[in-house]
């Protein structure tokens, strides 16, 4: 299969040519992780059914030597099952279960809120022929005008940034969500961040966000797969007067790490909590 | 090492004799997962330094043939490194990274809020000789009287239950967080739920919570390790008039699963979002 090591990949982009959909981004990384060259079929939001010869209304979709495979998760399962001799996207079934839990946190906490912060930018940056579809479909999904939904994002963006601290805690202890090398967990969480870089006219993350290192290393992978010239700067989030810190700056360290190394390591806390006023 | 396949385990319990600390629970499961018998040194919150001969102020702690190992994460690393021929607690380094991300979500979302809902029950249920320490230390940590912190929990418990939906989504697709068999990710997330069963005088989860199946299967592991007779019923959460659903009952399915199987699977959504009013 995969003649000439190449798989056909149906892309979904803005007018600037960079991929938009978080799912399509994750799939592009997944194909490269498996070592394939990709034959990109470009396009926007309208005409997917026609472009794919009636095979699907949604992307991602790939064609491997004539075999159509749909759905971001369907493609991951197909690639690992069909090519188990290549680097695994999901190296252990526990990685699948935990990625699903993390993704189920990530969407309501960050991805959905970010989409609501950039829904009008998104419409403005898509192809001319997509604007009517994007406006209608997103206003139906959101239940209001895109401009009204996007309004007030200056207040919301720092809150979203503060809420994604669990990623910072994990990536403080590990180089990748995959451990010492990236896997589909990284690509799945990265997808929505590259969506932001595709559609966000204002930055979503602080200049010195600790996640920046991981994000930029992800963008460098596979010959700079995440460095399309159409992408917009992610960093430089402005926090309004009185707004929350966009990430935890305190020296206090939460999360899992080896903290109790004996009485000397806990003495200060013990003294604090047992002192009677 | 581990003469007679036995490791010494310093427990931390309420007066009813069941383990309390989430970390100590997770460690007890970890030792059993590795196939060890455990020689339990019982005890409460005060006198840990004396009980352990000055080795530690905090539990869990284990002694393996004279070698002291401290800290819940330190013990996991020790067990997998020392006994790699036994079932792995962390079968892939990505499981470590993802468990850390999930745990960093779990604590501020559920464990901390649950602890604030049960802090006075917790004091009431501990050993008599622990009550002064527990009251002082927890009031220091919380910055208020235990009774005041616990007040109003009827309103908060359904919100906490609703917020843990990411676990339900992952466990809808997989039998365990470990995949087809449990690993440390399961035990780490389970620990705080067994803490609830140890200290909560009112139920935290709905009678028909979808998590119940996984929780009860976890409790059955290793000869019913999570079935100490001192433990309190977890199910039967009462939601006050107008309170949130304690879990998502709608037929809408979020999360990662193979959803696009072709145009028939997306047609209803497409018609909805493209219909002009």
Automatic annotation (TrEMBL), chains A, B:
InterPro entries attached to this UniProt entry: Glutathione-S-Trfase_C_sf, Glutathione_S-Trfase_N, GST_UstS-like_C, Lignin-Degrading_GST-like, Thioredoxin-like_sf
MF (Gene Ontology): transferase activity
Top-rank taxon: Bacteria
Keyword Transferase: yes
Location of the Glutathione S-transferase UstS-like C-terminal domain: 97-199
Domain GST N-terminal: 16-86
Keywords for this protein: Transferase
Claim: Transferase is one of the keywords in the record: yes
Database matches in Pfam families: GST_C_7 (PF22041), GST_N_3 (PF13417)
Gene3D superfamilies in alphabetical order: 1.20.1050.10, Glutaredoxin
The protein's name: Glutathione S-transferase family protein
Taxonomic lineage of the native organism: Bacteria, Pseudomonadati, Pseudomonadota, Alphaproteobacteria, Sphingomonadales
């Amino acid at each position: 299969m995969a003649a000439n090591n190449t798989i056909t990949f149906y892309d979904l982009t803005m007018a600037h040519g960079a991929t938009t959909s978080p799912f399509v981004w994750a799939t592009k990384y997944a194909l490269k992780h498996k070592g394939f060259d990709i034959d990109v079929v470009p396009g926007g939001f309208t005409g997917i059914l026609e472009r794919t010869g009636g095979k699907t209304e949604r992307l991602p979709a790939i064609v491997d030597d004539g075999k159509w495979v749909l759905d971001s998760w369907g493609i991951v399962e197909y690639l690992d099952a069909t090519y188990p001799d290549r680097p695994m996207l999901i190296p252990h079934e526990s990685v699948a279960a935990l990625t699903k839990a993390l993704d189920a946190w990530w969407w309501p906490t960050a991805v959905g809120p970010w989409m609501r912060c950039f829904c009008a930018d998104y419409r403005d940056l898509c192809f001319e022929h997509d604007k009517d579809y994007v406006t209608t479909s997103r206003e139906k999904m959101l239940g209001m005008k895109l401009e009204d939904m996007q309004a007030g994002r200056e207040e919301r963006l720092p809150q979203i940034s503060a809420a994604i601290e669990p990623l910072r805690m994990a990536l403080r202890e590990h180089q990748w969500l995959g451990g010492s090398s990236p896997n589909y967990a990284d690509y799945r969480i990265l997808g929505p961040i590259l969506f932001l870089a595709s559609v966000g006219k204002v930055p979503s993350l602080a200049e010195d966000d600790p996640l920046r290192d991981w994000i930029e290393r992800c963008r460098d992978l596979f010959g700079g797969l995440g460095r399309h010239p159409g992408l917009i700067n992610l960093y430089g989030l402005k926090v309004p007067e009185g707004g929350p810190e966009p990430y935890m700056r305190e020296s206090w360290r939460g999360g899992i790490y080896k903290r109790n190394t004996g009485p000397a390591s806990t003495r200060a806390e013990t003294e604090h909590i047992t002192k009677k006023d």
